[in-house]
Amino acid sequence: MKKLIILISILIASVISGVVWWENGKRPPDPTSEKSVIFVVKKGDGVREIANNLKEKGLIRSRIIFFLLIKQFGLDKDIQAGDFRLSPKMTTEEIALNLTHGTLDIWVTIPEGKRAEEIAEVLKKEIPTYNDSWQNILMINEGYLFPDTYLIPKNADIEMVLNQLRGNFEQKYSTLNILNAKLNQKEIVILASLIEREAITDEEKPIIAGILMNRLNAGMALQVDATIQYAKGKNASNNKWWEPVTTEEYKSVLSNYNTYINIGLPPGPISNPGLEALRAAANPSDTNYLYYLHDKNKTIRYARTLTEHNENIKIFGL
């Protein structure tokens, strides 16, 4: 009987201790605090990583209790990426619930190779303050809207957005080795924009750059389909960009961007290239190839002469 009483006493003490630990762990770290902290949840952050970051910022008392609360409320998939204004005077429950709404900024991803109008469509969907005047400003900055994932304030204006995108471009461009580049910055960006639309893999980009430079040096037309796609714009019938080019359009699309009927680089970028395309344009591969194509399996096929190129077309059924 005495052992049973002792066992029950230990059990009760453990329960009381657990309740005290649980309730104490949910309390604010500093109930009298008047300060607030901007807490950032990055895309892909897991609950444990978020808990560790909250603890390091002094916003929760216990990582374990935060983790258990998230599981208890089923909030795992409700936590948003973004930044949040939090305070040490908030309870752990308030912190957990706050992370599911009320983000101050929005994560926006700009994919590589998109044209300015496509970026405008992304921003229109994601940023509440977007208005139609943004598109023209973005178009003026075609080629310099660096593709990346950005944390953009909900109340951003176009100047704020442009500063982020162009600022990122300038930073990335500064990392390029341009000491031996044969093109100036504008020309590098234009060439990179072609490469970004033409290449499928990063490995192809320097070789395609070398081929296009060979054509430029030989006074050949670049004959890049993507330039005609850019000139054509959006297909009104299906609301799509970058529609396939027909044989007739090689000559019928009358635009300075049509590199089948105009020699040299187009007058401006046709897309917004990423770092690998910029790197390839600044440092093209030294190659004897003059032609390339992608077969039905998206494998690139190179050729030194037009005869070889036409043979590739026959072999791969294009």
Keywords:
mainly alpha, 318 residues, Dna Ligase, domain 1, 3 domains
Q: What's the short story on this structure?
A:
With 318 residues, the chain is mainly alpha-helical.
Description of the molecule:
With 318 residues, the protein is mainly alpha-helical. It has 3 domains: 25-103, Endolytic murein transglycosylase (Dna Ligase, domain 1); 106-172, 2-Layer Sandwich (Dna Ligase, domain 1); 176-287, no CATH class. The protein has 13 helices and 6 strands. It has helices at residues 2-26, 47-56, 63-73, 92-98, 116-126, 133-140, 158-173, 185-198, 205-218, 225-232, 249-252, 275-282, 306-315, and strands at 37-41, 82-86, 105-109, 149-153, 291-294, 300-303. The protein has a two-stranded antiparallel sheet with strand order 1-2. Strand 5 and strand 6 (300-303) form a beta hairpin. The longest helix has 25 residues, at 2-26. The radius of gyration is 28 Å and the shape is elongated. The termini are far apart. The mean pLDDT is 90.
